[in-house]
Amino acid sequence: MPRDLLNTESTSSQLQNTAADTSTDRLLQNNKQYAQSRQHLPPSQVIEPSMQTAILTCMDCRIPIEDALGLKPGQAYIIRNAGNVVTDDVLRSLILAVEGKEVREILVIGHTDCALAKFDSNAFTNSLKNKYQCAPCVPTQFHAFPNIRKNIRTQVAKLKAHPYLAEATSIRGFIFDVNTGKINELVP
Ligand SMILES: [Zn+2]
């Protein structure tokens, strides 16, 4: 049997005491400090976001969305994907949020300099097909767009047109400036 399997416990404790090797290790170290310093709230039966709000934004790591909006844990749902695109899965989460969790306001927040606006979905799909030598598989498209502002308007329109989101009283579109951190409204 390999030695590392025989010494699982000691290896595990050594890992805890050595410098983190990967980003995941560093994040888990950060979490230990977070969990130690976190103020434990009393258990609550209420899991609805207190601001009755859901936010769809891009996964771009230059958007610290909680900080940018002054959000605290428990206040809003945050859904992120590449290009803040209203995919089937985003609709799944939003419909659950609106129907089951009392969400009434939805914000779509795109951003300046979005990578999806400099991207050719078809070329990328073909390059994957060639690289991995297999037919296109899920996802079959990557939802690139040539115009950032138009994309935000398109995504808001998709939400407003969805019959299951009628309980959402407000669906608005915004753009986050990655240089200034300012959020401006595009679709009231
Ligand atoms: Zn983006």
Counting helices, strands and paired strands, the structural category is: alpha/beta
Radius of gyration: 21 Å
Helicity range of the residues?
Answer: 25-40%
Runs with pLDDT <50, length 5+? 1-15
So what's the CATH class of one domain?
Alpha Beta
β-sheet strand percentage: 15-25%
Q: What's the β-strand tally?
A: 5
Strand line-up across the major sheet: 2-1-3-4-5
Distance between the amino and carboxyl termini: 64 Å
CATH topology of one domain: Beta-carbonic Anhydrase, Chain A
CATH superfamily of one domain: Carbonic anhydrase
Number of helices: 7
Instruction: Tell me about the largest β-sheet.
Output: 5 strands, mixed
